[in-house]
Amino acid sequence: MAQALRHGTMRAGNLAVVLGELDRRGPLTRAALADATGLTKTTVSKLVADLIEAGLAVESGTVRDGERGRPGTAVRLSGHRVAALGLEINVDYLAACVVDLTREIRVIRTQPVDNRSAPPADVIAHLRALATAVLGEATTLGLTIPGAVVALPGPVDPSTGTVHRAPNLGWRDVAVTDTLALPLPVVVDNEANLAALGELWFGSGPALGDFLHVSGEIGIGAGLVVNGELFRGAHGFAGELGHVVVIPDGPPCRCGGSGCLERYAGQDALLSDGETLPDLLTRLRSGDPGALDSCTQAGTALGIALTTAVNLLDPDTIVLGGIYAPLFPWISTPATRTLRSRLSQMHPRVPTLVISAAGTNAAPLGAAGSVIQRIIADPITHLPTTQEAIG
Fold first, then answer.
1. Considering Cα of 313, then 319, then 322, then 325, what sign does the dihedral take?
2. For 145-189, what is each residue's pLDDT tens digit?
3. Rounded distance, CA 65 to CA 77, Å?
4. How many Å apart are CA 343 and CA 351, to the nearest integer?
5. Mean per-residue pLDDT for 293-312?
């Protein structure tokens, strides 16, 4: 039995190595996979056959290995069977998306709704309905969804599926996973962290170096990516940029503090009563002085908070996402000016501000991408013949 378990563990590891290589460098022939992984060609052929049977890989035509190599059949990740569900609860909308194993977006839906005045159970019930509808669309596309991740605007405990506190929603210690009750495994995570991962996997991430992704919504969060990995902090609560104090004697914040960034640069600070983001953009494009002044004040406050972040973290690039993406032409200039005025004496190079390529969908995309990463890291759990192979 011990020998069988060791064999199963080795096989699981080898499957992950092969699938990971296809993810990073595919398409590859079996011979190229053997060279890249150090496994024998016979072993690689068996592993590839298992991955193809599970719908995780697919053959993609004949190629030649090297200048004099014999033609071989290339293998790549398959987007035809296995996919992931990404969900988001935010203050004024719900979102859901399905992403296949090749990270192609197959379904994406956003539902505007004011969640601030609604009980948590009602908000989660609405998300369940949206998720169920999207899962139905995925089924019609022939996709199997083995897991989901939910993005939430506040500190969360992924191990229990609980959001500890989401001040802009008015939530405290809400058991999201248990209440959601979807027919598949669900993990919860912080919205800003997942948005940073969304930028890494679906945006400009690989070209950005170490970057700080700032999600501008009603609240403001930040996610830090270092060496291609998300930095979470000791307890997973890093990135609460919206509660960095920019004016110590400023107005009270929902978090219990005063003068926090989101009171000056959050969505509520930027929009007039009853105004929508398209309304604000129209006023900005027409040169409305009030709208321009609001963005200047918000950009300046953002620059003050980012100065603290840069002094602590020293990122190569700062990515502005959420509502800051469409507002980038008006927010980025005062933010950059403030950064330069406060950092130029100590920093030879001030980080560049860039617009998010993943846009307003960064968080649900990052949520779905997290599931994809887990599938690639542990493909054996998705093989139909796992038990027979171990026995």
1. positive
2. 999 999 999 888 888 889 988 888 999 999 999 999 999 999 999
3. 19
4. 10
5. 95
Its pTM stands at: 0.90
Write down the pLDDT at residue 1.
29
Angstrom distance (rounded) from CA 367 to CA 369: 5
How far apart CA 376 and CA 201 sit, in angstroms, is 14
Kindly give, in sequence order, each residue whose CB lies less than 8 Å from that of residue 291, ignoring residues fewer than 6 positions away: 280, 283, 284
Q: Write the secondary structure of the chain as one string of H (helix), E (strand) and C (coil).
A: CHHHHHHHHHHHHHHHHHHHHHHHHCCEEHHHHHHHHCCCHHHHHHHHHHHHHCCCEEEEEEEECCCCCCEEEEEEECCCCEEEEEEEECCCEEEEEEEECCCCEEEEEEEECCCCCCCHHHHHHHHHHHHHHHHHHHHHCCCECCCEEEEECCCEECCCCEEEEECCCCEEEEEHHHHHCCCCCEEEEEHHHHHHHHHHHHCCHHHCCCEEEEEECCCEEEEEEECCEEECCCCCCCCCHHHCECCCCCCECCCCCECECHHHHCHHHHCCCCCCHHHHHHHHHCCCHHHHHHHHHHHHHHHHHHHHHHHHHCCCEEEEEECCCCCHHHHHHHHHHHHHHHHCCCCCCCCEEEECCCHHHHHHHHHHHHHHHHHHHCHHHHCCCHHHHHC
Structure tokens at 207: 């070209």
